[in-house]
Amino acid sequence: MQKSAFLLVLFIFFGFKPVANKISEDRINEALTFCQKNDMDTSTAIMIDMSIHSGKNRIFVYDFKQKKITIEGLCAHGVGGGSTPIKPVFSNKEGSYCTSLGKYKVKGRSYSNWGIHVHYKMYGLEKTNSNAFERLVVLHSYTPVPNHEIYPQTLFGQSAGCPVLSDATMSKIDALLKAKKKPILLWIYV
Fold first, then answer.
1. What is the C-alpha to C-alpha distance for residues 190 and 178, in angstroms, rounded to an integer?
2. Distance between CA atoms of 106 and 104, rounded to whole angstroms?
């Protein structure tokens, strides 16, 4: 079996999708329309694809004007609810330590005990993530998260439900977010 066919079989078997296109055109269009309708920043969105293996880049900052990904990196998923390094379990319940799917409004820079000591508040905008603020789910970094892909190794045990990034990725996103006047869309999906 050729290497590419073997990799496709692995992707299908483990439920991962190839990351060649990283974000579908439909998802980009939906994100932009959502931002326009909800008075959010329409130049940038943060997309997190939890169907991608945790050892690969799965957080993407998309620039709507340039029509390209400008920042990407690793992103940990929550350890709760029976999540495994390869298969995240999603929940919106307090105390679940799970990642919650859905669209979030990101605004409010604050001090963090972790990583570069900066976090951003996340406000869940859907039924699947409506408790995010109460659960203290924030966008932040954690120094042990690598700055590069580690596949086939996994990134697990770093998150109690927050999207957790490397310090380098968070520094880039922080510089971007500090310059924004309107809230940014962060969308976690599978």
1. 28
2. 6
- Half-sphere exposure at residue 120, Cβ-oriented, CA atoms within 13 angstroms: 26
Distance CA 75, CA 61 (A): 12
- The pair of three-digit structure tokens given for residue 180, joined into one six-digit string: 């924004």
Q: Residue 12 pLDDT > 90, yes or no?
A: no
What tokens appear for 164 in the block? 């957790």
Q: According to CATH, what is the number of the domain 16-189?
A: 2.40.440.10
Q: For the sheet with 102-111, list strands across it.
A: 68-73, 59-63, 44-49, 184-189, 102-111, 118-124, 138-141, 164-165
Integer Cα distance of 54 and 89 in angstroms: 13
Please state, for a pLDDT cut of 90, what percent of the chain lies above it: 87
Domain limits, the chain: 16-189
Q: What is the pLDDT of residue 2?
A: 55
Which of the 8 DSSP states describes residue 188? E
Which candidate, 136, 94, 138, 149, places its Cα nearest to that of 116? 138
